[in-house]
Amino acid sequence: MNKNENLISALEAMLFAAGDPVEVSKLAEVLELDIETVTKMLGHLSAMYDERDSGLMLIKVESKYQLCTREQYSDEVRKLLEIKKNTPLSNAAFEVLAIIAYNKTVTRSFIEQVRGVDCSGSISSLVQKGLIEEKGRLDLPGRPLIYGTTDRFLRCFSLNSLEDLPDLPKTEEIENLGKDDSQTSLFDEEKQDEKNAILEEKSEGDE
pTM of the entire structure? Predict the structure, then answer.
């Protein structure tokens, strides 16, 4: 692969990762090239998709570029997204949703501090299902996104507002839940499942 091919591949990777339209000036800045050169490379990338009848295409929106699927495959893409949208929420997604709902608006880093694990997958799933949405950005370095619940979330859980959420357990109740192996805390269902699996394996081994 020559240098130009490598740069075009880099452009493709950046546009795919971004998802949203990207200013050509930003692409040029990352590749340390002038805007005219990057624009020509984007033209080559678009032509490559057309030549091989790819399911992807490159579109231009004013001075921004974005990868998207071709219209003739819209039915298949829509069906796939509907399947993903209707997939039941995992325990991890429920935990993330609870953290967002009870804190009104939070950043991804806050959620991950609470759960102690990467939550990008759960957040993406909740956004796709329309249960949470971007509410803006914090005026901090990196301008992190802020997430909050949607009207769809309220309808799904039969709530008039977030004020109707049930009260969180008090500290004493949480401590009691931790002492009682038959109970789980609000954000501890996954750990309890792991514990139950270990106990079952131990029981089978004793037999």
Answer: 0.45
Do 19 and 37 contact (CB within 8 A), yes or no?
A: no
Would you state the structure tokens that stand for residue 169, as one six-digit string?
């357990």
4-55 pLDDT per residue, tens: 788 999 999 999 888 778 899 999 999 999 999 999 999 999 999 998 889 9
Q: Report how far residue 68's alpha carbon sits from residue 74's, in angstroms, rounded to the nearest whole number.
A: 10
Residue 128 CA to residue 110 CA, distance in Å, equals: 20
Q: What is the pLDDT of residues 91-124, one digit of tens each?
A: 888 899 899 999 988 898 899 988 888 888 888 8
Q: What is the helix (H) or strand (E) element at residue 171, kind and residue range?
A: helix 171-179
Cβ contacts of 92-97, under 8 Å, gap ≥ 24: 92/117, 92/119, 92/121, 92/122, 92/190, 93/122, 93/125, 93/126, 94/189, 95/122, 95/186, 95/187, 95/189, 95/190, 96/122, 96/123, 96/126, 97/126, 97/131, 97/132, 97/149, 97/153
